[in-house]
């Protein structure tokens, strides 16, 4: 009765023609990816692979970690191999090796010695990418350049931050100017000049509080930064909580982790620390999250991250099991920094669910009932209430020839998103568009007395997001803001207990005053009978934890081991841990 496509043809055709990354991943589960039998994964023709340096072909050389490559290039055998038969080549090799070593030294100083030359760009973290770009600029020998860096310490261990400062000093010494947007206090203290903006966030900010040498900020009473820059070190918890049980992982093998056994306490706040690239995220955000998701039968609703290549790991390289502690975990919540929505239609109000209550409130007014308007009428995603010119977007796209497209406010609704009839319905003199234009702080005051909205908005304010507008597009939010909205959404739900919360570097992009607000919320989750697991570099969070697990000692092949575990006050005395040194300094 018709023509049917075979399963094999469908998979092959989809993989060859689709532009959708999700579809590629969907069909890739029916494929086996194996090493090329001709080149054995080296990607080059035999003629190219016959050319060798120090006994290695170009692929073998590119698979060496940068630290090992540096040692090889410095060895006499690398240069003198052909000196007897071809003395003229020795001069050429020396010149090339000298240039290579100067480039490598910058990368090694920035703590990237664990990377290989053939490491694909999509697998690098934002912090690693930023340090690679910085290394390129240090080696460029340019002068008279203004470099603007936005939070270069994001994702960096304090040891790596010191290397970053050395690279910045080299750029400055070469005759360049550096403008750094930063929250990390060690970098702020290292600056020659500070511009402090505030006093608050959003509409409460935007004022230059101070511009001058760091010491002068001490006199500015309105500055939040001053309170943290010139105050004594972080304090430990007055009394560390006792774990109620343990989650025991055995034989974990993935990336640079090999047959690792680790015990994670439940019912407390635990920090996972270690230098960048030591294996923290591999252990927690990858292995633990995936293993618990499978064991608990949860399904991730997050769409797959876009990837340039499909590189599934071989099952042989993925091992490990949870041998004990699963009975004490009923639910897993991963609070990451992925966007809360992929389109401008998603916003804080829709994500947290408080907009449903607002729409019902408008539908319950006498005038709305008289016109038979239901809650759907007040959704900008539903045709009956939204502006038809912009389809509820609030803006229209103007296509320009040879220039980027320009977005302008909708000429019909002037950015309100709704049609005129819908906007006639008001609650206490405010239309639904007016409510979406309010900040969380303004909405909290406006809806004071409504128990549901007061609780939802109060939690959002407590995580430090009172300045965000309810209808602010999700695409305009930073990763840190998105993460705190997810945390607020969890906090406003009825307490369940026995939930494991996993947060990967939640302090990224946060001012120290915001970190204190975050800690208050995390401790609130633990007090409710839950477990909080934080992969973190911020010593303020580490010191405030009940337990810490330090992974290391180094990065890449030199990491992947548990160096120290226990209460922070005990681990800070460890001589093997790199983190302990900085914890002692922060808590002095």
How many domains?
A: 3
Number of strands: 15
Task: Return the CATH class of the largest domain.
Answer: Alpha Beta
Mean pLDDT: 87
Continuous helix count = 24
Give helix % range. 25-40%
Structure characteristics:
single chain, 24 helices, 588 residues, Rossmann fold, 3 domains, ABC transporter ATPase like fold, alpha/beta
Task: Report on the architecture of this protein.
The chain is an alpha/beta fold and 588 residues long. It folds into three domains: 107 residues, Rossmann fold; 205 residues, 3-Layer(aba) Sandwich (Rossmann fold), CATH 3.40.50; 115 residues, ABC transporter ATPase  like domain (ABC transporter ATPase like fold). 37% of the residues lie in helices and 15% in strands. The chain is built from 24 helices and 15 strands. The strands form five sheets. Strands 9-12-13-7-14-15 form a six-stranded mixed β-sheet, with helices on both faces. β12, α21 and β13 form a beta-alpha-beta unit. α1 packs antiparallel against α2 and α8 runs parallel beside α9. The radius of gyration is 28 Å and the shape is globular. About 3% of the residues have low confidence.
């Amino acid at each position: 009765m018709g023509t049917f496509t075979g399963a094999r043809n469908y998979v092959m055709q989809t993989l060859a023609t689709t532009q959708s990354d999700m579809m590629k991943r969907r069909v890739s589960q029916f494929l086996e990816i194996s090493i090329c039998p001709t080149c054995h994964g080296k990607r080059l023709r035999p003629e190219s692979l016959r050319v060798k340096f120090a006994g290695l072909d170009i692929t073998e050389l590119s698979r060496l970690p940068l630290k090992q490559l540096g040692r090889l290039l410095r060895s006499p055998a690398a240069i003198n191999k052909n000196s007897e038969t071809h003395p003229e080549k020795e001069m050429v090799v020396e010149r090339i090796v000298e240039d290579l070593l100067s480039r490598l030294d910058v990368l090694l100083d920035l703590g990237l010695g664990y990377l290989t030359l053939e490491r694909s760009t999509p697998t690098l973290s934002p912090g690693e990418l930023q340090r690679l770009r910085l290394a390129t600029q240090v080696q460029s020998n340019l002068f008279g350049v203004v470099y603007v860096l936005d939070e270069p310490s994001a994702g960096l261990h304090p040891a790596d931050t010191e290397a970053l400062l050395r690279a910045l000093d080299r750029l400055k010494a070469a005759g360049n100017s550096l403008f750094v947007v930063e929250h990390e206090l060690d970098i702020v203290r290292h600056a020659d000049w500070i511009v402090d903006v505030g006093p608050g966030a959003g509409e409460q900010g935007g004022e230059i509080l101070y511009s001058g040498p760091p010491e002068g900020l001490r006199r500015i009473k309105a500055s939040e930064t001053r309170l943290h820059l010139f105050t004594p070190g972080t304090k430990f918890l007055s009394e560390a909580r006792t774990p109620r049980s343990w989650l025991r992982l055995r034989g974990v093998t993935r990336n640079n982790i090999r047959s690792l056994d680790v015990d994670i306490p439940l019912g407390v706040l635990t920090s996972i620390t270690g230098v960048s690239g030591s294996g923290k995220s591999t252990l927690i955000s990858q292995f633990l999250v995936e293993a618990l998701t499978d064991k608990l039968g949860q399904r991730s609703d997050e769409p797959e991250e876009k990837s340039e290549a499909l590189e599934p790991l071989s099952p042989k390289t993925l091992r490990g099991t949870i041998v004990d502690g699963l009975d004490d975990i009923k639910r897993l919540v991963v609070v990451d920094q992925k966007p809360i929505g992929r389109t401008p239609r998603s916003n804080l109000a829709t994500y947290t669910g408080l907009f449903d209550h607002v729409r019902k409130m408008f539908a319950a007014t006498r005038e709305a009932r008289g016109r038979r308007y239901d809650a759907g009428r007040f959704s900008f995603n539903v045709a009956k209430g939204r502006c038809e010119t912009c389809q509820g977007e609030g803006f229209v796209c103007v296509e320009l020839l040879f220039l980027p497209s320009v977005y302008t406010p909708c000429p019909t609704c002037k950015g309100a998103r709704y049609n005129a009839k819908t906007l006639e319905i008001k609650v206490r003199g405010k239309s639904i568009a007016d409510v979406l234009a309010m900040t969380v702080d303004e909405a909290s005051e406006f809806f004071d007395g409504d128990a549901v909205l007061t609780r939802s908005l109060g939690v959002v304010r407590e995580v430090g997001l009172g300045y965000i507008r309810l209808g602010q597009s999700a695409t305009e939010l930073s990763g840190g803001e998105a993460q705190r909205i997810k945390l607020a959404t969890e906090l406003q739900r009825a307490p369940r207990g026995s939930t494991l919360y996993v947060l990967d570097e939640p302090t990224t992009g946060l001012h120290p005053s915001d970190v204190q607000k975050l800690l208050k919320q995390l401790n609130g989750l633990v007090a409710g009978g839950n477990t909080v697991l934080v992969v973190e570099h911020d010593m303020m969070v580490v010191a405030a934890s009940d337990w810490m697990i330090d992974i290391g000692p180094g990065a890449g092949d030199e990491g992947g081991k548990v160096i120290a575990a226990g209460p922070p006050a005990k681990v800070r005395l460890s001589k093997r841990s790199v983190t302990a040194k900085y914890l002692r300094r922060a808590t002095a």
